[in-house]
Every structure is written in structure tokens, then in C-alpha cells.
Write a structure and sequence with these properties.
By secondary structure, this protein is of the alpha/beta class. It has three domains: 55 residues, no CATH class; 207 residues, Aminopeptidase; 69 residues, OB fold (Dihydrolipoamide Acetyltransferase, E2P). It is built from ten helices and 13 strands. A ten-stranded mixed β-sheet has the order 1-3-2-4-7-5-6-8-13-12. Helix 8 links the parallel strand 5 and strand 6. The structure holds zinc ion.
């Protein structure tokens, strides 16, 4: 039976469930989840994930990008998967890194094109880094989230204690291999994409230098000052990029949905803005989008005021909040965690990367408020 037919059948089951279960004021978790996914406007595959359907019974996620052919770039010219080009004129060392998450192939699509077309710096040094090629090589269109990593999340390893511990994994081996190279980088742009619907955004962490860089780039315009994850430090949180005495800077672009061409276009635009801002490429460089590409909106900084971690298996959002879409009213119930209500702590609350299906102990959403512009 075709998968979509099965899913349409499931819709009937869900509606039946909803009628049968939604009798109490709040209903059960299943009921809330059913109601949310029916009203969601999510793709059938995301709706199925949000509803907790097992993978085998879910429609396929849409993959509208083809994984690039990276064999020519595998060996690198300074390290495996690392291409680094110097210009005759002094300037900063700028690095763009993709595939920190092996399934987020948009960054690899962009960098593959730049390399094929011969992008070179006019000033300083430009490096392009394919971070987790081992995970990327496992990318499977039929199960495209599975290749995020091999052993562990490569974007939770960047505190010094972890890097220097005796612990071993595929991702730690690669992080340790990249570390001396990353120590030479002045400005880092880390390219990522998202599963759940969200406006593109830039994560700048706690460093004032990173936040200022994000606002100066302005593509994407929403810049998030956040505290990272309890589970471990991200690459943008790596000591050289945040040390008060240092000067190196890093930002992470969440450029849009995984596997969409528009996400690659946002990555191209963000990289172009960065390289032009730093004077790292020729003003008329034809490989990247034009220097004065307009941003969608003026840049705005938001700071995370609350990180919501799911405590129960029954965590469910009241509706499928879109990342970046402002919730106007303070005290709005946005989710239930078991019987606990999760409310917006202030007016004009910005949900950052809500995960519409989450497990106990995982971040369900971060809530942020706009930071007034300094005069
Ligand atoms: Zn990512």
C-alpha cells in the first residue's frame, strides 16, 4: 500500500482517537498531540514525528537536495576534508565549516560549489571545512535524520575537558584532529539547518564579539544570544572564540529547513556577507551572491530568557509553534509537560527552535526576548 494512502488512513484513526479521548478539559497527552498535528500545517512526515509515530510507519521526509559528490574534497590540502587558501595580501583567517551534523547537507552543497568554481580569498586566508564526512557518507534519503552523527553529537564536544579527556568516539577523534587548525581561525561561520519549521536565525552564544558579528552580518536577521546546551559545548562556544582576552569570533547559522534549496541560498548569502564584511574576497567576486544583497529585515538581537527542558514523556506543545514567530502576550500557555503548564515569561516572546517531538531531558524550546538597541 502506498505510504501516503496509509497515512490518510491514519488521519482517520487520529480523528477517531481525538473524538474518543478529548473529553476532559485538557485531554490526554495523546489527544493533545493528535489535535496539534491535525491543526499543524506540518508536512505529513513531520506531523507523524510530532505525533510519535514509529519511523517504519511514518511518511518519508522531503529531501529536495541531492547529497554532493565530495570524493574530490575528501583528502583536503591541509587536513582531511579541510581546504585552505592563502591570499598574497595579509588579512584574517576566515573559516566556513559545514557537516558538523552529517545529515545537514546544505553546507556541503554550498561549499562543494564554491570549491568547484574556484573561490579564493583576496586577503588573508579562507578555509572550507567538511567536519563530519564519516557521518555524511551514511546519509540515506529514506532515513535522512539518521546520519546526524556516528557515535555522538559533534556539536557538544568543544569544552577543553572533553577534548582533552580519555574518552573516545568517531566525533571526538575528528574534533581533536581539527582543533589545532581551528586554533588558527580568526572568524568562523558554522553552517547548520533545522528539522522543524523556523525562520532562519543566527546563534551567537554568550560572547559579545559573536553577537556583534551576527548583527553586523544581518543574514539571517534574527541573532540569538544563548547559553548553549547542558549536554556540552558547541563549536561556537570553544574557548578561543569566547575567551574574554581573545579576539577570535564564531557564529552558527541555522539557515532553514534541512534539504531545501532555499537553505543553501541563505548559507550562500550569509557567507558572502561575512567575506565581504571582512574584505576577504574581491568586491566583484562572481561565485557568491552580490556584496549588497538586501537582508529580509533589520537585524535584531534576542536573548534567551528560559531554556525549556522536557521533564516527562508527555511534553506537548499547545500548537506547532514556528521558530522565530513572536508570541505577543506574556503568560500564554505554549506547552504542557505532563500536567505542568509552560508559559511565556514576557510579552513578545520568541520561541527559538521548538522541537515538536521531544524526550525527557532534552531541550524542547528556548524562549527569548528582544534586546533593546543601544543608542
Ligand atoms: Zn546542526
Amino acid at each position: 500500500m502506498p505510504r501516503h494512502t496509509w497515512y490518510a488512513g491514519f488521519g482517520d484513526v487520529r480523528r477517531g482517537l481525538a473524538r474518543g479521548l478529548c473529553r476532559s478539559r485538557r485531554g490526554t497527552t495523546a489527544c493533545r498531540r493528535v489535535r496539534m498535528t491535525e491543526e499543524s500545517g506540518l508536512s505529513p512526515a513531520l506531523a507523524a514525528i510530532a505525533a510519535g509515530l514509529p519511523h517504519a510507519a511514518s511518511p518519508r521526509l522531503d529531501v529536495r537536495l541531492s547529497p554532493p559528490h565530495l570524493k574530490p574534497w575528501r583528502d583536503g590540502n591541509v587536513l582531511p576534508g579541510v581546504w585552505s587558501f592563502g591570499a598574497p595580501v595579509d588579512g584574517p583567517h576566515v573559516a566556513v565549516i559545514g557537516l558538523v551534523h552529517g545529515n545537514e547537507i546544505g553546507g556541503a552543497v554550498a561549499m562543494d560549489r564554491w570549491l568547484r568554481q574556484g573561490l579564493r580569498p583576496a586577503r588573508g586566508r579562507l578555509s572550507l571545512v567538511f567536519a563530519n564526512l564519516t557521518a555524511f557518507e551514511r546519509f540515506d534519503r529514506d532515513d535522512p535524520t539518521a546520519s546526524r552523527f556516528v557515535d555522538e553529537d559533534m556539536n557538544r564536544l568543544w569544552d577543553i575537558d572533553t577534548l582533552e579527556s580519555g574518552r573516545r568516539s568517531c566525533e571526538l577523534r575528528r574534533a581533536r584532529e581539527l582543533r589545532p587548525f581551528l586554533d588558527t581561525v580568526d572568524v568562523l561561520l558554522d553552517l547548520h539547518s533545522m528539522l522543524w519549521p523556523s525562520d532562519p536565525l543566527m546563534l551567537a552564544g554568550q560572547s559579545a564579539r559573536g553577537q556583534a558579528l551576527g548583527l553586523a552580518l544581518g543574514i539571517p536577521p534574527l541573532v540569538v544570544a544563548d547559553q548553549g546546551h547542558e549536554a556540552g559545548a558547541r563549536l561556537i562556544d570553544y574557548a578561543p572564540f569566547i575567551a574574554p582576552a581573545g579576539a577570535a569570533r564564531a557564529v552558527l547559522v541555522e539557515a532553514g529547513s534541512h534539504w531545501e534549496q532555499a537553505t543553501v541560498a541563505t548559507m550562500d548569502a550569509a557567507a558572502s556577507r561575512l567575506l565581504h564584511l571582512l574584505g576577504a574576497i574581491d568586491p566583484a567576486e562572481p561565485i557568491l551572491p552580490p556584496r549588497y544583497l538586501p537582508a529580509d529585515a533589520p537585524p535584531r538581537l534576542v536573548e534567551v530568557t528560559r531554556t525549556v527542558t522536557a521533564r516527562t514523556p508527555g511534553f506537548v506543545f499547545m500548537r506547532p509553534f514556528r521558530g522565530g514567530a513572536v508570541v505577543k502576550q506574556r503568560n500564554t500557555v505554549i506547552a504542557l509537560d505532563g500536567e505542568e503548564e509552560i508559559r511565556t515569561p514576557h510579552d513578545d516572546c520568541v520561541p527559538v527552535m521548538p522541537s515538536l517531538r521531544t524526550m525527557p531531558g532534552h531541550t524542547a524550546v528556548r524562549l527569548a526576548r528582544f534586546v533593546p538597541e543601544r543608542p
